[in-house]
Amino acid sequence: MDTPRDALSQGFEKARQGLQQVAQSSDLPNFDSTGTRALEAWFLGPKAENADELERFIVEAIRDQAFWRRNFHPSDPTHITGEMKRSPEYLEAMDSLTEGYQSLLAFLKKSVPFFSPRYQGHMNWDLTIPGILGYFAAMLYNPNNVAFEGSTATTILEILVGDDLCQMLGYTIPDREAIDRGAIRPWGHITCDGTVANIEALWSARNLKFYPLALQAALQADPALAAGKSIVITLPTGASRPLIELDTWELLNLQADDILALPTRLTAESQISRDTITASLAQYSLQSLGLQEFSRRFLSQIDKSPVFLVPGTKHYSFPKAAAVLGIGAANAIDVPVDKDARLNMAALKDILERCLLEKIPVYTVVGVVGSTEESAIDPIKDILALRAEFRQRGLEFTVHGDAAWGGYHISVMRDDFDMPEPLASLVAAPPPAVPLKHYVIEQFQALGGVDSITVDPHKSGYIPYPAGALCYRNSAMRDLVTFSAPVVFHGDAEPTVGIYGIEGSKPGAAAAAVYLSHRVIRPSKSGYGKIIGEALFSCKKLYARLLCMARPEDPFVVVPVSRLPAEVDGADLAAQIQFIRDRIVGKTNQEIINDRDAMKLLAEIGPDQNILAYAFNFKNASGQINTDLAQTNRLNKALYDRLSINPGDDIYGYDLIVSTTDLNAAQYGATFITDYKHRLGVGKSAGDSITVLRSVVMDPWVTETTKGSFLDILEHEFRKAVTAALAEIMPTQTGRD
Q1: What is the CATH number that goes with domain 176-202+305-423+438-475?
Q2: How far is residue 622's CA from residue 224's CA, in Å, rounded to a whole number?
Q3: Is the pLDDT of residue 366 over 90?
Q4: In which residue ranges of the chain is CATH 3.40.640.10 found?
């Protein structure tokens, strides 16, 4: 790390000055617009209802690109002449292009129909029109956001987008005066996806953990840093000691902000230049020495390898990160989840107690903000409180929020920012959105306290791939993973984002897509909050429909993974299910909205966000629920075979598309698996892996159409599939309990 606070402030100021220079000849890009509030104008539509509008905008982008090219030194000679276009070779080449293009267009129709309300397979849906246009228009310029030199427009857009994402997630952007007074500034940037963002977050947490060890060694050995030997740092317990006197365990448990402030303090208090600090640390840093040599020199007093903690619902990127970073998958400790698939706080506390007792350093604790299987949100508020408790006892770690899927859901509760009041003509009646769960609101309110957050615009932001993102609460953390090449980076005079993180070349078009979508559809209540609020409404209505789908005479039952409030609170479960049958299932959106009690319950049922996991079980010949987990899994796999796309098949033959996953005790823990087995009716059966189906509901208008409720169609397709699946497996079930 080599950027003191004053240099950091200057760097942001230079970036802003660069934006102002661009603004001299054109309007400065910003988010200070009225935005729009017409959801139907934001998407192409399931039947391409907005095709004419999209075509007009696309043609305008091509024509604008042509205008730009023709007016860049217009006196320069042209190359492709009319005579060339009439030549046999040219015509033959165009014929070949036409044939190949038409063939490609035909083949692409084998793609997944993400746009259809019948598609509920993965975290994909239609793209926002501004996202498409932003990507397409910028793609014609082919900017590479690895460096400002190759992306003089889209680097600026990425800086703006990074700030916008930070504010959406709960990080405050201080002004210049506040930064000069020591305020911490957040920072965010676009990555190709959440996997890269998660790897970068863990990379920076690892380097942060070891930075004090390298700095202490440099202070002790390098005469150039002699003036800094007296620097004092505050321990998490509240005591203060000279940095050079701390033992290894103490150095491994300093607070992030105190560590990140050290370069600034060395410059301000000891008059040591930034370049001197950087050159000296290069001899001792983990980045330079490598993990084996660094451990040999500085970790001899630590008997056990450092670890990081993740819930059992973790994304696969975390074991991948452990392997890539040399941490080792064995040192990625799974924390069991509770009955609601959220990180189990009692289990987390037990693991941290062991780490403290055995002096096992902890890099970070990960809280998932919207798991990709159950859409569960971990108790971020409690994780931060537990860190404060262990901090006083001498164990310190960062907290990372993996909100790749769920980050944009905070827009449902986020007030508008960086925009004036809406035009009166844009204010419409509120859409059928549902409030977030009280628990979810609490976690989102606490999210600004975590050290880093992954969020994917190409998931709940409805942006074209690739557009992930990573945001830091303290922007100085980015400098822990800084690499630059002279061929693409020319110093502080240029605003840049490409020197931070894992990636090299990356499309500036991704930043343009996020920028334009955010400018038109603000990541707040008036914009993305509308889209996601309506999708949540649809998801909860689908949850209610599946919950109540099985009639007494039906040979099956449906059991959602998400528990009802009555199951959580020990209330009357049968009465609550009957209330859902009477007041939610089969009711129109407006009827539910007008029913205060129905809306209150609707907000609290279903998953934390809009991924719905559920499993079917069947009744045997005597009418009793099957008690064999293996046969329950067989039924759900047979269902998935009917509700998933086979490679090469004609997609027009698919009436409903969902996805599947297996929930197992090795990752989730016994508490969750035992409870869900019991609710499925297979609690006494052997086995600890449960096959479930999964519906991702991103469609904001799935519940009602001019021809009735689309949920009726979905239920019909589920019934058709389960009938066929039961016909396949029931012959082997005769006489079984």
Answers
A1: 3.40.640.10
A2: 85
A3: yes
A4: 176-202+305-423+438-475
